[in-house]
Amino acid sequence: MLEISQLSAGYGQVEVLWEVDLEVGDGEIVALVGSNGAGKTTLLRAVSGMIATGAGEVSFDGESLTGLRPEQVVKRGIAHVPEGRHLFAGLTVKENLMAGAFARRNGSDVERALELFPHLRDRLSQVAGSLSGGEQQMCAIARGLMSAPKLLMIDELSLGLGPKLVEEILDRLTAVAQQGTALLVVEQDVDAALRIANRGYVLETGRIALSGESAELLEEPRVREAYLGIA
Question: Rounded to an integer, what distance in angstroms lies between the CA atom of residue 44 and that of residue 64?
Fold first, then answer.
């Protein structure tokens, strides 16, 4: 579905990614992990059209995304939940959800979002800026799903959240994948991310250092020592 080939990207004269190869298949959960500053956020921004790519190719369903604006990428079937959530703080939860459906021609499906995140059902009329951190993350993911994407990209899902809430949200993402939406998840909790993912990629200083099945990466000595704290 998503195919990234020899991608290089950055900000102005500052190169962040070098020759990155990555793939996400239909209905698959793929984890992208690595230390802070490795380039994970930059990669998602390059895919969603928020920054220009310097070299390489990004394609989705066999069509190039290179040079497209973010709204065009959304219409192709990719939704991006950015780091920090970036909700419209002064709008209600329902208004935020409806904003996520702007690209749909056949209406919106608020009920599907509420089935996945029932905590939001009693918050529809509440201003998003007054939600707890966990509720804001749920709202941000639900807003992304409102465009009925084929691929949902989530950046730093667990940032600022407690372990129990992270586990609950990850369980919901498994349900999202089972309903046919592929996921590319950037997550600082490497163990949790790889345990729900089919496959994973380890990004180090802008390059893919390791990739493979999640179970294999969890047993990889470099991953266990650098990211799981197991010597």
Answer: 15
Mean residue pLDDT of the chain comes to 91
Strand partners, 208: 203
Torsion of CA 193, 196, 198, 201, to 10 degrees: 0
Is there a contact between 200 and 40 (Cβ–Cβ < 8 Å)? Answer: no
| pLDDT score for 107 | 53
In this model, does residue 104 exceed pLDDT 70? no
For residues 173-190, average pLDDT: 92
Residue in the block written with tokens 């192709």:
76
Query: Can you say whether the dihedral through the CA atoms of 164, 167, 173, 177 is positive or negative?
Result: negative
Asked if 58 and 47 count as a contact pair (C-beta separation under 8 A), the reply is yes
**pTM for the model:** 0.92
